[in-house]
Amino acid sequence: MSKAAAPPIELASADPSIAQEMTRWLAHLGAERRLSPKTLEAYARDLRQCLDFLCSHWGERVTLARFASLEATDIRAFMAMRRADDIAGRSLMRALAGLRSFGRFLEREGKGKVGALSAIRAPKVAKTLPKPLPMASAKRLVDADERAGEDRETWILVRDAAVMALLYGSGLRISEALGLKRREVPRPGEGDVLIVTGKGNKTRMVPVLQNVLALIDEYVGMCPHTLPPEGPIFVGARGGPLSPRIIQLAMERLRGALGLPDSATPHALRHSFATHLLSRGGDLRAIQELLGHSSLSTTQIYTGIDSERLLEVYASAHPRR
Q1: What distances in angstroms separate CA 258 from CA 35, 137, 142, 203, 308, one per listed residue?
Q2: How many Cβ atoms from other residues are within 10 Å of residue 126's Cβ?
Q3: Rounded distance, CA 274 to CA 169, Å?
Q4: For residue 123, what pLDDT is reported?
Q5: Catalytic residue flag (residue 302)
Q6: What is the pLDDT, as a whole number, of residue 265?
Q7: Residue of 43, 168, 219, 302 marked active site
Q8: Mean pLDDT of the chain
Q9: Is 16 in contact with 64 (CB distance < 8 Å)?
Q10: What is the dihedral of CA 227, 211, 301, 137, to 10 degrees?
């Protein structure tokens, strides 16, 4: 027995022919493209909103012929209206994707080509960054005793804590921390900087706290594997290179134990390093150098600093004439 067809859609702002094609389009997306019901609901809502806008914009109900003659200015006006309603960039991208899908469907069905839709650039979406952790939570994450109840060898717990202490204490990327050779890490009291190789094979000098070096030294003393000077200082359970995934899993276990959100990742420790430095009055340019960012604007976005705060940093640091 065949499945009953979906009831026809009724649109106050558009001709019945548009409603009929919209019904067929959604059925096609559900049956052949296997889109989820929530996605179909969002696409239908976005198209309705667009048709409502066009009806008001043109002063008449939308027909198939008129929809096919859409101009880029019409789409931009609709997107501007939606953005004025504080709609996020991702929702605007989804709306444009849905409209383009409907336009392609009409073209395949011989109902006209809506060329203006392909001429519109997708809106920019702000990069999402992990939220910085509270200082107290960051400190607990780098404490090996927090995992004392786990069924793991003590040296592994100390190793993981040492890696996370480097991420938070020196603002390293996880790849930078795991890429350190043993000879590159001074023993406590014998140095206070690291030469780190970052993106693009660029090296930079970053400070390292003595208590972090002490934690690394404790791990080295407990590690059952040989750690040659030219080899990685952090190794896996069998002595091979330590995978970033191991540290990620350690963070996941700690998140559960400490009641932290999913945003508490290894990269969030680096982000917390920068944010906490800035909140304590750290210079933005210096933080840029410590993070290894090639552009100050990247650091501005990364630390969540607003334009007003950036001007304050500039005003306080720039020499007066």
Answers
A1: 37, 8, 12, 35, 35
A2: 9
A3: 10
A4: 58
A5: yes
A6: 83
A7: 302
A8: 81
A9: no
A10: 110
